[in-house]
Amino acid sequence: MGRPISEPLADIIARQWDVIVIGTGIGGGVAGRALAEAGHSVLFVEMGRAGLRAEQTGLDIGMADPVARSVRGLWPDPVRAEVNGMAQEFFAPLGSGLGGSSVFYAATLERPERHDLDDSPARPHPTGGWPVSFTAMQPWFDAATAMFALHGEPDPLSDIPHPALIAPPPPQPGDAMIMARLAQNGLNPYRLHTALRYLEGCAECLGHKCPRACKMDGRSAGVEPALATGRAHLLTDCAVTHLARDGARVTRVFAQKGGEAITLSARHIVLAAGALSSPRLLLASRSEADPGGIGNAGGLVGRNLMFHLNEIFALWPGRAAGFAGPSKSVGFRDLYFAENQRLGMVQAMGVDVGYGEIVHHLRGRVAGSWLRHIPGAMDATRIPAAVGAKLMGQAKVFVGLLEDLPYAENRVTHDPDHPARIAMSYRIAPELLARRKIFRRLIRRAFRGQRTAFLTHRPEPNFGHPCGTLAMGRDPAKSVLDASCRPHGIDNLWVTDASVFPTSMGVNPSLTIAANALRVAATLTEEK
Amino acid sequence: MNALTDGCAIVTGAGGGLGRALALALAPHMQVAGLGRRMAALEETEALAGGNFLPLMADVTDVVEVVQAFDTARNIAPITVLINNAAIYPRRDFLDESAASFMATVGINLGGVVTCTRAALSDMTATGFGRILNVATFADLHPLPASSAYSVSKGAARIFTRALIADIGDRFPGIVVNDWMPGMLATDMGIADGLEPAAAAKWGAKLALWHDPSLTGTTWEMAAEIPPARSLKRRIADRVLMRPRAKPRQL
Predict the structure, then answer these.
(1) What is the ipTM of this complex?
(2) Is residue B18 part of a domain?
(3) With an 8 Å Cβ cutoff, are B126 and A386 in contact?
(4) Does B213 touch chain A (CB under 8 A)?
């Protein structure tokens, strides 16, 4: 398949679509596919390019030219972030093209735990619980598991069935060895749930674009099957700028296409531009009726921004182990909820930690220290990075995903003078730092007797896992969206990306995004 | 597409010299289409090949002719191999060049490579699979007298190889691109006591049919890989890290 074909622009503009889907990542792709398969006419609007199907581009945080970045499907511009009061500008691991960030992802789709969504006396939920319970979400988790062809093993610590999960191919020797080693330490490892179909010749495209529909992402599991129905169309290089509503209905979608301002309309709008951009578009949708933007009467749009903290550590399994290749597909949940704290799961890094990532990591550390005033200090990071890369080659790298909790002051901001720019303000909460301490102590203890080293020293928000900025909830005073993921009081605007999460959970967000998108698409179809 | 030899190879300048020898060396392995300006010369190559060779009259400086020739070739099979060989070497003092005569040489030696590469990439980026071999020289390093247009254009072609890799190397690792210096040949462009083009073409054809992503960006001279120059910093870093020196590969 080459470039997806779409109708002439004039026809697309003139047409009244059943649904316009803004964004083609997991949330937009999956919702659009489900809606097209349910018989709706669907227009996907993607800010970035369609790209070429055979590309194998990786997520390159070092590439700075905006044209080179958009050609590759990377978010073209640096994001502005005020982190703990310090202004920073950097390239976040974000996609901008067909499939969004998901075409680059490591395809780890893990189901959250019951307590991630539900409130219980033993594990009280910090928000009182999601407005949709784990039990209500379960069929959608199963449907998303099937749609993404998830291969993996059930978590041995869980008693909740995982009927759609497919047994993975036999583990690589490195993975088998690391699982044995983890089990020796009393942990309960399992093979991660990976969205790979393992087609013949599968190269396990984790961390870069897959040239075939083998890795399942927003493009291969979402937009492409949607286009195959014949009811969906794709408009690329088209950046939505704002929306306009008429009473309880959003009636117009304003966008820039090839330097021209265009207006699109549909009976329903699905907003899935990602947790950093969906709130930005609503904040930009100002009018007399909505001086602070659509859905923002309570002033909550963009607030409660969360990331996971990445606790990355290396484990040297010893010379005798003779590991070949990185460990890709092993994780465990023994520390997920421990010492009465919400922590998170630990996973082998699906992506090789190479020289480039280490340079970036060290530069980040230099930039945040007094060393930044020393000329040449940034370049000097290359040498320890090269040494590090040499050592890492022999170590297995793991990441612990530490759950973040919602704080209103952490938020996406909107600058009317630079409406297209992603900007945010984020402070690492003292409570999060306290849980981080516990998490690191428990990780160290879990690997007692093994040679380990933390590669993250300062707290490292995972800017690839933003969520919570349009949280759903039961109380209109405390949430942006209702349980159906529509802004309170709006009938036809639906959000299906990670913006909707009331809390960040202790797992990668993708499975929950996909499951929720399927749930929302079903609600929309029922109401048609 | 699993093998380069399932597709069609394009050799430019196939009516004589090294280009003809390369076409003849490839034809036993796969379908070859030879581009050239003189049909009679291409037909001679066809007769020598005894099959698997399609003569296509096209001037590499003419975009329309090149696009038509590539269309004809891809009707047989998708283009998997491109050898950019066509070049001219007018011995001319710069004071005897006009701006137009100088740029005409650039148009063939650089422009031809750009035009044919762009045309071949239509096929190769659709499959993510292909091989581009650029016939190159060291003429740019120490330009000889009476060689200004040649030195400049061939040097620019080497920069083009690197610039092309900067744009597509990370996105299409399966499109393998590199430069090959055939050595001093006994051709019209070369020297009387040079190497027989058929001997050099054996290496060139072998290299063109070698589809190893790690070849991208490498430079080869005759049958051997030329290791990239290492900066002092790199040499020290390699020593500190006790990194073994890569052995240059041989054909």
Answers:
(1) 0.91
(2) yes
(3) no
(4) no
